[in-house]
């Protein structure tokens, strides 16, 4: 194969299929037999715009195959998860496992690229693992210009869930080589399909850039979320405040919500904090503010439930953001689950992006119903996610109900 993509998740699968559509012969590798079988049958195990056709065509055209074994390849791309442990410390064990799995296959001339969002220093760790397992090949090391047998680079993805396929092609791309020669080699892969600019730097800077991008967004959302809590105390409408403040030419406040979700923005800032715990004060506080916003939202809903002792409560949306079927780290889901565990019989859940409720709702008594059924039956209506399917709700539909719109969706 020309390219082996390790990890067929939200980033690995679209990237593998896209590379295949540009003519590369690609082997996608995943530890899950189910994922491998689905992909080999031309199907997808994740919902993402334009992805099904891309995978179907790549499999039909025989430029993409999936396997549970890492094959020998010219380029190895690591796109496995880097979760957070209980203590907010990064867990890079999947990246390390991928490096160990590919090490025996690596031939001189190969290029290894890490794409997984990673704490700073992870690419160096991959170099260490390969060097340990393959004393016969010279692995490039940071700051050296020695001739190495392989190339090693960190090239973060920065695509938005829901627009992954489009953004993979059109976004600018940071290419961080352990040495400049490594960056050049890695760029051969990216320049074949990226229409944005490819920007060259070191692996360490590229690792930091990825974490900083998501921390920037987290800090800005935290400002909006804190404002919403300040506005509750002061007794003003936060949406009016933001709308009017944003008419200042240099002010652009983001939108408050029920907290910050997804597997990136709610996680990556902790990687930055872990690398510099004393210095990263604002970044840590922003994380805490955004996590607290979910607690605050849950408390406000509980107050409404207690004020209306026998009415049903409709919770609109479980996903981590609008128009997506992704429930990972979703504050809406966490809030709904907590309420279902104490008031299950009264909870009506509306989520157009799922047909089955997640396991956490089992035996709580909470039910998944249609929007119309929920609105008809509920005394309390809470907007947790501003899905397009909810946006047609009009004041007349909600007359006589207690309404809490955490997203500022309703007119
Ligand atoms: N959110 C708000 N208010 C806002 C904007 C977002 O509450 O004004 C919430 C969303 O509802 C959601 C969370 O923030 O719960 C994150 O959503 P998002 O759309 O900001 O970001 P993600 O997680 O879908 O994707 C981010 C993107 N990063 C940036 O915009 C800097 C994407 O480009 C990255 O590639 C992705 O993380 C990633 O994979 O790291």
TrEMBL record:
Keyword Oxidoreductase: yes
GO molecular function: UDP-N-acetyl-D-mannosamine dehydrogenase activity
Highest taxon, organism lineage: Bacteria
Primary enzyme class: oxidoreductase
Domain UDP-glucose/GDP-mannose dehydrogenase C-terminal: from-to ranges: 314-411
NCBIfam families per the UniProt record, alphabetical: NDP-sugDHase, PRK11064.1
Stated name of the protein: UDP-N-acetyl-D-mannosamine dehydrogenase
Upper taxonomic lineage: Bacteria, Pseudomonadati, Pseudomonadota, Alphaproteobacteria, Sphingomonadales
Gene: wecC
């Amino acid at each position: 194969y020309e390219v082996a993509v390790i990890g067929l998740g939200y980033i690995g699968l679209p990237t593998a299929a896209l590379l295949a559509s540009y003519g590369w012969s690609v082997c996608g590798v995943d530890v899950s037999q189910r994922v491998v079988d689905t992909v080999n049958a031309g199907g997808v195990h994740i919902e993402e715009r334009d992805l099904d056709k891309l995978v179907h065509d790549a499999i039909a055209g025989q430029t993409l195959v999936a396997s549970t074994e890492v094959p020998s390849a010219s380029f190895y791309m690591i796109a496995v998860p880097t979760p957070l442990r209980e203590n907010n410390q990064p867990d890079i064990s999947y990246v390390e496992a991928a490096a160990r799995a590919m090490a025996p296959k690596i031939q001189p001339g190969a290029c290894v690229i890490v794409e997984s969002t990673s704490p700073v220093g992870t690419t160096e760790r991959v170099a260490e693992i390969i060097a340990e397992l393959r004393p016969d090949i010279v692995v490039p090391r940071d700051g050296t210009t020695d001739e190495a047998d392989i190339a090693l680079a960190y090239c973060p993805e920065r695509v938005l869930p829901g627009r992954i396929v489009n953004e993979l092609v059109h976004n600018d791309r940071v290419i961080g080589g352990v040495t400049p020669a490594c960056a050049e080699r890695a760029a051969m892969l990216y320049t074949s399909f990226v229409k944005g600019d490819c920007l060259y730097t070191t692996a360490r800077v590229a690792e930091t850039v990825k974490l900083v991008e998501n921390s920037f967004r987290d800090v800005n959302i935290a400002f909006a979320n804190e404002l919403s809590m300040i506005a509750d105390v002061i007794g003003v409408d936060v949406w009016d405040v933001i709308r009017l403040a944003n008419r200042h030419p240099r002010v652009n406040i983001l939108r408050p919500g029920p907290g910050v979700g997804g597997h990136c923005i709610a996680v990556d800032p902790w990687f930055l904090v872990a690398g510099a715990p004393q210095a990263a004060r604002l970044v840590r506080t922003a994380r805490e503010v955004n996590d607290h916003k979910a607690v605050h939202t849950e408390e406000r809903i509980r107050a409404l439930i207690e004020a209306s002792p026998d009415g049903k409560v409709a919770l609109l949306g479980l996903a981590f953001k609008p128009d997506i079927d992704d429930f990972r780290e979703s504050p809406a889901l966490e809030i709904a689950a907590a309420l279902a565990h104490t008031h299950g019989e009264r909870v009506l859940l509306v989520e157009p992006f799922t047909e089955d409720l997640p396991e956490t709702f089992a035996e709580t008594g909470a039910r998944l119903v249609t929007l119309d059924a929920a609105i008809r039956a509920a005394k309390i209506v809470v907007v947790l996610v501003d899905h397009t399917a909810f946006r047609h709700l009009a004041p007349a539909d909600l007359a006589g109900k207690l309404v809490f719109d955490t997203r500022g969706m309703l007119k």
